[in-house]
Design goal:
Blueprint: E1 10-27, E2 33-54, E3 62-65, H1 70-87, E4 93-100, H2 110-125, H3 132-143, E5 156-159, E6 164-168, E7 176-182, H4 201-220, H5 223-241, H6 246-255, E8 260-263, E9 269-274, H7 281-294, E10 299-305, E11 311-312
Parallel strand pairs: 3-4
Antiparallel strand pairs: 1-2, 2-4, 5-6, 7-9, 7-10, 8-9, 10-11
């Protein structure tokens, strides 16, 4: 850290996710249209941040390592203002260091994870623990839209551009086994370059029906119903994303007995969803991996999610060796973000 820093570093962490289960336009309690999403939680790579205050330094004079994490730097500056106000101290500069290995451009919440970790690190440096609503507000101000990673693994419908929860769907998603893969060869997706979909009244009604079905899936613990919602949402997202492998993915999911598919609506990561209670699960998962390989769709990680913390499932050698086995290597503070094309997460 900077030798002139006099305060102990504050630290913060944030997870990533595996794209969306549902994304669209919904109605809030006042009947107003809001863009919203429900993400699929995933344990594994996340972002960690360390922040050292420099009392007396020019306010907002922040350095960040790596230097390209501009959204996290904005979030740290906003968090300094908030924490200084709450503690009655003058704002000051500081140094922010980020580590993590979430691939960028795949729709796994890499920037949101950086931003939330940065906010938490700044708050920790001030001896504070900010509530999730405050963290969400700062995150949206820093990056214009944020994933709900500050809320833990609860399934919530989250207004990503406003930083507020539209609905808590329940305590946990139904258990799932997810065979992850990367569409488009894992090439990053530039969200800002995507065309803006024209959402009409009938579209909002369709999204509200999917919201009601997802609420029922959570209440009943139905993996099958959750898979149907995720597939329907993915198909709508496909109208904008246009992944050439999408029809192949849905077809192989059907052939291998999956309950559905999910995709990142602002990225390339996707998942084939299985009910863990289905008979012959290991055979189904292996068949899915073989089919992905046969069609040239790179598999990434197979993991479980639901009522217990998400964890990776060993499934034995892949068709051409162990390349599908998830690997999380620690990155140094100056390690640049890994390219989005990934043989394993």
């Amino acid at each position: 850290m900077n030798p002139g820093a006099t305060d102990a570093p504050g630290t913060g962490q944030a997870p990533c996710h595996h794209g969306e289960i549902l994304q669209g336009v919904f109605l809030d309690d006042a009947g107003r249209r809001c863009a919203g999403l429900v993400t699929l939680p995933m344990a594994g790579p996340g972002s960690s941040a360390a922040f050292v205050r420099r009392p007396g330094a020019v306010p907002r004079a922040l350095t960040v390592v790596p230097a390209d994490r501009t959204k996290a730097a904005r979030a740290a500056a906003l968090a300094v203002d908030e924490c200084a106000r709450r503690t009655g101290q003058p704002p000051c500069g500081g140094e922010l260091r980020l580590t993590g290995e979430i691939p960028v451009g795949l729709g796994m919440g890499s920037s949101s994870s950086d931003v939330i970790a940065a906010v938490r690190a700044v708050a920790d440096a001030y001896g504070l623990r900010l509530d999730p609503a405050t963290v969400a507000g700062l995150a949206v101000r820093a990056e214009l839209a944020s994933d709900p990673l500050m809320l833990g693994g609860r399934p919530v419908l989250f207004a990503q551009r406003e930083g507020r929860v539209l609905e808590v769907l329940g305590p946990a998603l139904p258990p799932l086994v997810v065979v992850g893969c990367a569409l488009g060869g894992g090439a990053p997706v530039d969200t800002l370059s995507l065309p803006v979909a024209d959402v009409g009244r009938s579209d909002v009604r369709a999204y509200e029906r999917l919201r009601a079905l997802l609420r029922r899936a959570v209440a009943t613990g139905s993996a099958e119903l959750l898979g149907a919602v995720a597939t329907a949402s993915a198909r709508r997202g496909q109208e904008v994303l246009g992944h050439p492998e999408f029809d192949t993915l849905t077809a192989l999911a059907h052939r291998t007995g999956a309950v559905g598919v999910q995709i990142a609506h602002s990225g390339a990561v996707a998942g084939v969803l299985f009910d863990p209670a289905a008979p012959g699960l290991r055979r189904r998962v292996r068949g899915c991996l073989r089919a992905l390989d046969a069609h040239g769709i790179p598999a990434t990680r197979t993991f479980t999610t639901g009522t217990t913390p998400a964890k990776e499932i060993p499934h034995g050698p892949a068709p051409h060796g162990p390349a599908h086995r998830g690997v999380d290597r620690p990155a140094g503070p100056d390690t640049p973000r890994r390219p989005a094309r990934l043989p394993a997460l």
